[in-house]
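Objective 1b: paired records.
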Amino acid sequence: MNGTEPARAKDLLEFQRRIGYEFSDPALLEEALTHSSYAHERGVPFWNERLEFLGDAVLEVLISEELFRARPDASEGQMTRERASLVREEVLSAWGHSLGLDGLLLLGMGQRGSASENMIGDAVEALIGALYLDGGLEQARAFLNRRPREASHEQLDPKSRLQILCQERNGPTPYYELLQRKGPEHDPIFIVRALLDGKELARGRGTSRKAAEQAAARAALKLVEPPKEQP
């Protein structure tokens, strides 16, 4: 533990109450919340990368099962894309923030108080790995089922949502064309258009081609996605 052990122990106990699971081996939880920068600085012999590796695999299995059961008409390709979107960094880091992991993650002096989104997402995967080792697959599944979520379709990135929407309508797959790259090398702007069956749907811009494609897909969704029902 860190230098304020009683306070740390209290925080971890409260965290376990929050996630609805008490670890039989608290060392697994501590390992899941220890970043390599802290371990190397303090000479701690463990950090969370191995648990992250395991948790990534467990998460993939559980999300795959969830999609398999929830989307009986989806193709392998559709489920693969949806799974990738559901476990992307932004989703995991948002989940980690909702759990308060940003305040529990042990970081080195140079990182303290500035945990990156990647660090927080990795800690979520490490936590899943720790839950799997301590309580088995069912505890990992129970933790996953308690995650905050909107309808799964709403969690998808715009490109995935647009592609799934077009496939559900038995239409062609949208594709993207780079129209322009401008600006200095260190600060470029990309302009991309989204096309469907050779016809332009919308354009988008961003500081990378990937970001511009997402912007174009987001604009296209406003044209083709059905409006949300008002409560």
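Objective 1b, second protein:
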Amino acid sequence: MRARRFPTGHEEDDLVAVEEPLEIRIGGEPVAVTMRTPGHDEELALGFCLTEGLAPVAARVPDDLAVNAIDVEASGFDPERLRRHFYTSSSCGVCGKGAIEAVRVASQRVESALRLSQALAAALPDRLLSAQRAFAATGGLHATGLFTASGELACVREDVGRHNAMDKVVGWAFLAGLVPLSEHVLCVSGRLSFELVQKAAVAGCPVLVAVGAPSSLAIEVADDRGLTLCGFVREGRLTVYTEPCRITG
């Protein structure tokens, strides 16, 4: 994209993040439209369906070869759920759903013996940032990273939507046979919303780390589902809001 830089007034090419719609279908029927950064679309669709309680099995390009569409196979899917469509935006995954109750998904309380040192938890955002190549080029993408208990980065995904980045990682983990994520840690590059905590809980991840702040509802959901929530993780410091027993000194 051409852009003009001030105060010099020079025009030059600028790299920007791509944002396009993706229609997620089940059995050919649209169930969601999300604004996302193209790439890893099958993972995104699988992660979205999994964290919305739709029991996905596989995802593929639809038979009609429609651009910006993915068809998901979901076992035992109830077509009556199509009465309420899920329309999401890149800035807020719950926008357009009408009420927060519409995105509550039943999940088991997270049970895990995982323990994470304070030093390792505090180091994860920097490790995630070093893997954010698209963000380094554009400055316009959120990221989610999946880490092992020893701090090894297993998967990173970037997207204009923070919830999309999370869905892509969960979808990758689903395909890799790692769900539930009872021996892993999720780290996000921004703030902690209710929906991100919900997705982590449904995926069975015991620890969620973020650079930014959590919302009040995010803390309530994390506490209810037994998830360790760490916010303001930067410069060697972190604030643990729920289940601090998993963070060791």
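The two ends are 48 Å apart (CA to CA). Confidence is low (pLDDT under 50) at residues 82-89, 94-104.
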